[in-house]
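User: Okay, second chain of the day. Same drill as before: sequence in, structure tokens out.
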Amino acid sequence: MRKFFIAIGFVVLCLVCVTETGAKQRTSKSVRQQQRLTEQKIKQTDSRIKENARQLKSKLNDLNRLQAESQSINAAIAGIQSSIDSLAAVEQAARDSVETLDRKLADLQKAYAAILRDSRHSRMAMSNLAFIFSSKSFAQAFRRANALKQFSRWRERKVGQIKSVKASLDERRRYIDTLMTQNRQLVASMSARHAELGKRAAETDKIVTSLKGKESDLRKMLREQQRQATALDRELDKIIKEEQRKALIEEQKRKQREEEQRRAEEQRKAEERRKAEEQKMADTADGKPSANAPKTTPAKPTQPAPKPAPQPKAEERKVTPSPVSSSDFAANKGRLRYPVNPHNIVRRFGRQQHPVHKQVMTDNAGIDMETSSGATVMSVFDGEVSAIFCPAGYNNVVLVRHGQYLTVYANLGTLAVRTGDKVKAGQSLGTVYVDQSDNGRSILHFEIRNAVNAKSVTKENPEVWLR
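Assistant: Same drill. Structure tokens below.
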């Protein structure tokens, strides 16, 4: 038994020696190599995460673009269908009028033929001249000549009516042919639109299928985008409130200056009146006429007052309507030009259903417009550059004030203005940021806000203001 324990102890001792020998063989060089390998793995993992995020962002942008295009196509299809329905109603009305004209023409031709038969039968194929000379008296001949003249006029009138109805009938039939051609063209256009819509739907389904299984990543990206939008919203509110606070202070200072000037003017006038009274009293005490006493002048013969020019009566006065002021931002609602061209709205204003997570609603304070790579961003109206800042996710943001209204231009890559610059409608503010990680895509975020006061700032739907 003792030998057994000695053997076990010897084995344990050998293992300890082997372990210590292995630990000694782990040199600093091997440790550094292991660190480099770990760092490379971390970088590769980070690169994969970034690439995955880039692909998700690109696919979501593609999805937004496809959905926006589908909405536009659906709107176009609805417009085409409405035009087809209108044409169908017009065509039916035209066909009804053709039937009416056909009946009228048939009645006219029938009545004309009947009258001609009766007149030939009554005169027994006698010529007009023989019919007149066969009269028994001059009075009868005169009556017959007058009757023939009236009959000739009636016949010419009826022939003219028949020709007019025929011309109207031919014109209506040509109009119906034109309507039918237009209808066929609209139906073909609608079929092409439906095919295009089907293509967009297939592309959308493909992207949605490729995104399945990545719900956690999508939710994470959605939360990050919402966080960035909220941060932009807070920053804009902060800037607007600070502007309102400064404007209120300036207004109070202006009123204070006006009040001080008014008081100083009143004191000056009171002092002048006091001095005038003192001078008057001094002059009266010395027996001298007051310098301020009014001088008497000889009366001039009165001239008859000129008669006033005659005024036009109330109904004769012409009132010229005042034109809309170019400085009135609100008066140009629905007439402002888009800040970028060409443009395709990929995200609309307000609460929208997420394209993948149907149960998730997103909120957009403005509209997102995809445009050509690096397109020029233009001011939609005259104003002043109120602020320029760079929040996360939006690159450069330019805030332009138009009285109580403000326009927001976010995701600019380059700037052409500075804070405090006066800008005109159509003037360049810079260019849209070019996202090289998303195939050079350029998307402008645009907002309109109505800042009545610091406590009442409302977000407007830009599509209602733009044309």
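Residues 83 and 244 are 50 Å apart (CA to CA).

User: Thanks, on to the next one.
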